[in-house]
Design a protein that fits this description.
It is built from five helices and two strands. It is mostly helical.
């Protein structure tokens, strides 16, 4: 699996611009996880965030406009969690353990 992850990292480089922003959301799940993990690293696991703050972190990390897609995927893959009403978000404290083979 480690060799596969290295190959995905190499392929994923094509998805980033010169400023390090994701230009296109990958279609393959392993590459999605790698891209989402890169964004998740920008969240402090001890911090709480508003939806606006989460959107700004994502906006600064991507070069396309579908912030909602990335936020939903980060929630679905358990990189972040939120209150039911969406008023507060936080980084899942164990996401690095869950995806350690990708890091």
């Amino acid at each position: 699996m480690e060799k596969d992850i290295e190959q995905y990292y190499e392929k994923l480089k094509r998805y980033y611009d010169s400023e390090g922003r994701l230009t296109q959301y990958p279609s393959r799940k392993p590459m999605r996880i790698l891209a989402l993990a890169r964004i998740a690293l920008q969240f402090d696991t001890a911090g709480k965030y508003t939806e606006k703050e989460v959107n700004q972190i994502i906006r600064d990390s991507i070069a396309f406009s579908d912030i909602e897609l990335i936020r939903r995927e980060m929630f679905q893959y358990r990189f972040i969690d939120r209150l039911r009403d969406g008023s507060e978000y936080w980084a899942e404290p164990d996401w690095k353990i869950k995806y350690e083979e990708y890091l």
